[in-house]
């Protein structure tokens, strides 16, 4: 069954089988997205880019409508010369072809560079942060006279929010730098929607400031839902990010009065392509799931597991409890934080899966693959017990939290 058809079938099941008073939905809705003229009015504030400007863009694992923004900047004559587009992949590894899909307004003379976190010949060492992160970054970040970053801002389960400095660190950083920074995700203070006092977030910005004067970098920070843009902030990197962060909390954040018994999460594109990215939907809403509850992850995962570092940890342990016990901040290896978070959820909840991954893969990740008939029986049982159900329609983007008095 195709993903769209599966989603429709499940939503129909819920409406038929479940008492509406016990269902909460995180459906993203907006009375008004920005019009073309409104977007252009904001982009007019960008200073015209000079020759040889480097424009840092997201890779294909992000939903940022990069091509739309570039098209408008061309129309407004903000990009009068050929530029270098630098794809900030972090530790991801898209090919030039998938990177080029982000750009539909290509001009003669433009260049496309795809970051490779393992090519240290293209990186410059700029210093060490107070938390002992050795900062290696792409040479162009240090040498480019003019830089513009284009990014989207959403809740992030250990960095607080995406966007901002993430175009540079980890976007254009060496693997060693990303690994040393991401070990801080093992700390309890590194939480979704939290920036102040978040050690990983603070380390990212400190690392960025070692690369160059961030106030000299122009940026476009946006809140979007697919190709639709809800909010735009332009200006210096920190200032524009702070404005967009507040808008992201309002748009993607859902406050609740109490926890729920069960969660069904439809992972939204492009995060649904791999299990590595799909985990974000689990992390974004797990705080509102009761202990002993159920989490159903629905993600096609047509590109498979994705970055397999975290998945390899599962192969070494026969239970979530043994995994949690062995992984630690002091002995951190890249991917440990994702495996650790996964194990913590699997230890206190039953995790089900619907998608294209095999039964063997799913069992390795402490989950159980189920059918539509199996889910029908679950819904009937939960409804009879009058248990609450959260339907996360835009999994991986929306974030739920219990509001404190």
TrEMBL record:
InterPro entries noted in UniProt: LarA-like, LarA-like_C, LarA-like_N, LarA_C, SAM-dependent_MTases_sf
Boundaries of every Lactate racemase C-terminal domain copy: 269-328
Domain LarA-like N-terminal, chain residue ranges per copy: 40-189
Gene3D superfamilies noted in UniProt: 3.40.50.11440, 3.90.226.30
One Pfam family matching this protein: Lar_N
PANTHER family recorded: LAR_N DOMAIN-CONTAINING PROTEIN, LARA-LIKE N-TERMINAL DOMAIN-CONTAINING PROTEIN
Name of this protein: LarA-like N-terminal domain-containing protein
């Amino acid at each position: 069954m195709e993903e769209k058809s599966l989603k429709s079938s499940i939503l129909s099941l819920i409406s038929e089988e479940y008492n509406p008073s016990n269902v909460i939905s995180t459906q993203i809705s907006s009375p008004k997205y920005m019009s073309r003229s409104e977007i252009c009015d904001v982009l007019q504030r960008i200073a015209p880019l000079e020759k040889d400007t480097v424009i840092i863009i997201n890779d294909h694992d992000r939903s940022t409508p990069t091509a739309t923004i570039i098209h408008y900047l061309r129309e407004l004559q903000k990009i009068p010369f050929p530029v270098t587009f630098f794809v900030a992949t972090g530790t991801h590894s898209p090919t030039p072809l998938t990177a080029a899909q982000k750009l539909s307004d290509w001009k003669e003379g433009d260049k496309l560079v795809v970051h490779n976190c393992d090519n240290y010949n293209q990186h410059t060492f700029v210093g060490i942060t107070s938390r002992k992160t050795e900062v290696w970054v792409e040479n162009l970040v240090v040498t480019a006279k003019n830089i513009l970053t284009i990014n989207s801002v959403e809740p992030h389960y250990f960095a607080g929010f995406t966007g901002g400095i993430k175009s540079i660190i980890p976007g254009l950083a060496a693997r060693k730098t990303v690994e040393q920074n991401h070990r801080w995700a093992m700390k309890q203070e590194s939480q979704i929607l939290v920036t102040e006092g978040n050690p990983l977030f603070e380390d990212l910005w400190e690392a960025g400031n070692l690369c160059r004067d961030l106030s000299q970098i122009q940026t476009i920070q946006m809140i979007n839902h697919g190709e639709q843009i809800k909010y735009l902030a332009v200006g210096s990197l920190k200032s524009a990010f702070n404005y967009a962060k507040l808008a992201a909390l309002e748009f993607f954040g859902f406050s609740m009065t109490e926890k729920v018994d069960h969660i069904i999460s439809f992972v939204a594109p492009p995060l649904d392509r791999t299990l590595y990215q799909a985990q974000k939907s689990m992390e974004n809403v797990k705080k509102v799931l009761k202990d002993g509850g159920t989490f159903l992850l629905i993600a096609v995962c047509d590109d498979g597991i994705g970055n397999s570092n975290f998945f390899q940890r599962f192969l070494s342990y026969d239970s979530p409890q043994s995994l949690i016990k062995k992984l630690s901040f002091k002995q951190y290896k890249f991917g440990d934080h994702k495996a650790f978070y996964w194990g913590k959820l699997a230890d206190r909840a039953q995790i089900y899966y619907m998608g294209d991954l095999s039964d063997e893969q799913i069992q390795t990740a402490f989950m159980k693959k189920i059918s539509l008939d199996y889910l029908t029986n679950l819904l009937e049982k939960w409804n009879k017990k009058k248990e609450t159900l959260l339907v996360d329609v835009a999994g991986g983007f929306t974030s739920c939290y219990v509001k404190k008095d």
